[in-house]
Amino acid sequence: MKQYRLVSRENKGKNTIIQVNGVNIGEEKIIIAGPCAVESEQQMDTVASFLKDNKVNILRGGAYKPRTSPYAFQGLKEEGLIILNKIGKKYNMPIVSEAVSLASLELVANYCDMIQIGARNMTNYELLKALGNYKKPILLKRGMAATIEEFLTAAEYIITSGNENVVLCERGIRTFETYTRNTLDLTCVAIIKELSHLPIIADPSHGTGRWELVKPMAKASLACGADGIMIEVHPDPYKALSDGEQSLNFTSFKTLMEEINPLLK
Amino acid sequence: MKQYRLVSRENKGKNTIIQVNGVNIGEEKIIIAGPCAVESEQQMDTVASFLKDNKVNILRGGAYKPRTSPYAFQGLKEEGLIILNKIGKKYNMPIVSEAVSLASLELVANYCDMIQIGARNMTNYELLKALGNYKKPILLKRGMAATIEEFLTAAEYIITSGNENVVLCERGIRTFETYTRNTLDLTCVAIIKELSHLPIIADPSHGTGRWELVKPMAKASLACGADGIMIEVHPDPYKALSDGEQSLNFTSFKTLMEEINPLLK
Amino acid sequence: MKQYRLVSRENKGKNTIIQVNGVNIGEEKIIIAGPCAVESEQQMDTVASFLKDNKVNILRGGAYKPRTSPYAFQGLKEEGLIILNKIGKKYNMPIVSEAVSLASLELVANYCDMIQIGARNMTNYELLKALGNYKKPILLKRGMAATIEEFLTAAEYIITSGNENVVLCERGIRTFETYTRNTLDLTCVAIIKELSHLPIIADPSHGTGRWELVKPMAKASLACGADGIMIEVHPDPYKALSDGEQSLNFTSFKTLMEEINPLLK
Amino acid sequence: MKQYRLVSRENKGKNTIIQVNGVNIGEEKIIIAGPCAVESEQQMDTVASFLKDNKVNILRGGAYKPRTSPYAFQGLKEEGLIILNKIGKKYNMPIVSEAVSLASLELVANYCDMIQIGARNMTNYELLKALGNYKKPILLKRGMAATIEEFLTAAEYIITSGNENVVLCERGIRTFETYTRNTLDLTCVAIIKELSHLPIIADPSHGTGRWELVKPMAKASLACGADGIMIEVHPDPYKALSDGEQSLNFTSFKTLMEEINPLLK
Questions:
Q1: Nearest chain D Cα to A145, which residue?
Q2: How does DSSP classify residue D193?
Q3: Nearest-CA neighbor of B28 among B57, B4, B53, B59?
């Protein structure tokens, strides 16, 4: 039996465009940016003010953090979503945040413009099936050990559940290389562009795990056809409660935006 | 911050023994067997009758199947659990089945003696945290891209949630080798025996994906220290609704049990 | 003990520029192109004539082919080098070809302007040590399972043997993904640029194994900082004696060159 | 075109038995043991005296060491082979050592009873082809990124070159797991037993990289059908010039031999 149908180019030749509050993913090249985790209203206000001035399309911030260790910071939960929602409205930016369960999905769908499903939940098929109950667009990240076929089939689960608004996100896979946190598989972007009509963006922050590699890999992502990039930005990466080592500070992000400008057209 | 504490040998030197209705995992070497999926009462009755006669300790059967494709058989759900429960009682065998969400967890906990968390949900931390609400023992399978440290830390999530009865299960990891479905990482068994006091079993059926490799790898699993093995058995593997190519038929299973006998002591 | 010294930025901050008969690798972005294997004088004449007109800097062609199977075409050997040398002179293009042993090294060094060491021989340290006997520049490809540290350390072997003219080449690593022949690890390019003063190019032909992915990945390679790309081109890929499925025909190569033009500056 | 023929069971159904000076590999289960590197005559004398008393069949010791770094100990070369040869004669043990080039191959073939081709040279096809010039049996180790098909095809190179005496050796592959140096892929042993008539042994020392894991993995190797094991033993692992962390001392080796005894039959 065929693994996927609805997501394939055979089923629909024309690129799908996903609308997120006025941002058309798949039409224009878009930038999603923000901190790994929402830490406080002040932090989000500082970040959003900066990102708004720097042409970022969508603001990100995690309220539910699926951390490897139970002893690590798990996120501000609903309080984080309330902050994110308030800041998104203040700066007129659409917001995206991750859902990690049916309960958090309900809340994320209420407060946010786009629902993220993280790499660790790409094969949480019960969560994927529940997305059909919501009309908000989905940002689906590739699992750490997911083949491209499994990645597309996870998207198929969402579409068959009744939600057609899926944006894919390449964020690195597990390999033997240890210099980077993951191996960003940019060929996946070029392949998905061939096999599927869905938009795909890349996340060089998680894909490399090192802030100094984010700029070159953001350029490579756009050059090979990604519809956008997702970048972790923090006012003070050394003090970040999670993923500080892969977050850009404001200066680095400004430089990134200048240098990728020719690739956004 | 340290990733895990409670599961470590530093925390508890003596091997933990997990009781599943009279079966003491970690004390005696145990066999869990049964079909990948519960398909019908007749199928389960046939299998259980055979397995009971062949010294199997615990009967398995999936009612909720996390399948790669939404078009593949998804399991009989509660109906499957009812069948499994009835057959378990008839043959006086403890039963184990997989939970894939909070809703299915409630049902699996009601009908079964042991709750399985599958590889695809090892990083579904919200599901792991919910296990503290139940007293039933847990069978936690290693994720396909999970390092040994992440595997132990997933067990730590369960223990910190309030359920100390965790049995680990090595079931193969993703590598470049394509001859097998996964690469059974038996060294993981030996390492876990060093690092942790929790019992660990191996699943050579999923670990290889090919029935003809199950016997040698079952022997290897026991030889390197596994506390037991989990084997897929089906009355007619060619007609199985899932995973037929890795299921043993009755004849092969009988031979397996004879040949592993010296390693069970 | 430190694994590598001479190749590191600590040892030499300024980028090394490798001269190959008037082509300055590390200064200008360069294109190496040609067929996987030299098959005949006519084939090479047709290809070189086309590539010369399309601004290719260096002509490639294998005479010694390290094939997985002993029954596959093993190359024309010295006859192939003689053809390559003749055609290189006719079109005034520097040529590069692979050496696979001390004997073939002697011949490749005699006939060619640059000596390639392939992925399968990156850990053939005796071959690496022999390179110090020649002054010709070396093109060292990354091994299929080589970490970035091991890749740099292989270059260190060459430099300590007495040959400082090493150009590195990322060509994909082995991962669980099977859609592509290898996983092109472009982050390696960005990392090498940080850690080492040596130039590095990328090979999207071997890196993907599929001609239709060569163009997007060539762009990504240049965008993330590669000093050039190596592309397999064949007059008639369907008739190629090796690697036809990853070779571009002339039409596709022309399009590639047009589209990467902005990234060559 | 088919990748391999001569090594396959289709070509020859009966197990091949390789004779190494009175040791019949493929008939009896054999033990190869010794230090990673020959360091001195005294070291080898001490080791061989101990191993001879403990029923080891074949003595190993590296004279040519293919080390990742050019700054690491590279072996005693011919001097090492002379020592190994002398000690082998003194204790009446067949000896095996690694060849890394045509020059060292000539010497290893002269001094030793069996020629080892290491993992780093499994795809050095020119070295493989040269083995046909010698009648000594070959011990071929699996490459770190070699699929089982590529492993068998490397053996096919040796046989087509004219040397039919090939013993295979599983020694671990590269995966994302970092707790061990390599991931010992024991399923490879069971698969080779199905696909090929050649004997295969396992190397749990390199396969794990940690001495404390050698014993359980040696047992597992024998349990799944390996025709023998290869173990690194050193009189004082803390002072070993290479691979000390994976070498057993005499006490541990004695225990290993006692515990694997039931599996040798």
A1: D176
A2: H
A3: B57
3-state secondary structure of C102: helix
Residues in chain B: 265
Tokens representing residue B255 in the block: 């031979």
Residue D247 is given by DSSP the state -
* CA–CA min distance D69, chain A (Å): 18
Nearest to A138 by CA among A150, A156, A120, A146: A156
Residues of B in contact with D170 (CB under 8 A): none
Q: Is A261 helix (H, G, I), strand (E, B) or coil?
A: helix
pLDDT beneath 50, residues of chain B: none
For testing contact with chain B, the best of C68, C173, C175, C176 (most B CBs within 10 A):
C176
Contact with chain C for residue A177, Cβ under 8 A = yes
Say yes or no: C132 contacts chain D, CB-CB below 8 A.
Answer: no
Q: Nearest residue of A to residue D145 by CA position? A: A176
For residue B47, give the nearest of B215, B232, B211, B234 by alpha carbon. Answer: B234
Please tell me the number of Cα atoms within 13 Å of A122 on its side-chain side.
Answer: 30
What pLDDT digit, counting tens, does each position of D140-190 carry? 999 999 999 999 999 999 999 999 999 999 999 999 999 999 999 999 999
pLDDT, residue C1, reads: 56
Residues from chain B contacting residue D225 (CB–CB below 8 Å): 216
Q: Counting beta carbons within 10 angstroms of the beta carbon of residue C261, is it exposed (0 to 12), middle (13 to 18) or buried (19 or more)? A: exposed
Tell me whether residues A174 and D178 touch, CB distance under 8 A: no
- Percentage of chain C exceeding pLDDT 90: 96
Task: Identify which of A145, A177, A225 has the shortest CB distance to residue C216.
Answer: A225
Angle of the C214-223 helix axis to the C250-260 helix axis, nearest 10: 30
Q: How many CB pairs under 8 A join B and C?
A: 6
Q: What value does the CA radius of gyration of chain A take, rounded to a whole number of Å?
A: 17
| Domains delineated in chain C | 18-66+73-174+198-264 (3.20.20.70)
Residue of C nearest to B175 (CA): C176
Q: Inspect the interface and report whether the beta carbons of B145 and A150 lie closer than 8 Å.
A: no
d(CA D201, CA D203) in angstroms, rounded, equals 7
Measure Cα distances from B85 to A133, B82, D69 in Å: 32, 5, 60
**Cβ of A102 and B104 within 8 Å?**
no
pTM above 0.95, yes or no: yes
pLDDT tens digit sequence for D217-247? 999 999 999 999 999 999 999 998 888 899 9
Q: In the complex, which subunits touch A with 3 or more CB pairs below 8 angstroms?
A: B, C, D
DSSP-derived secondary structure letter, A133: G
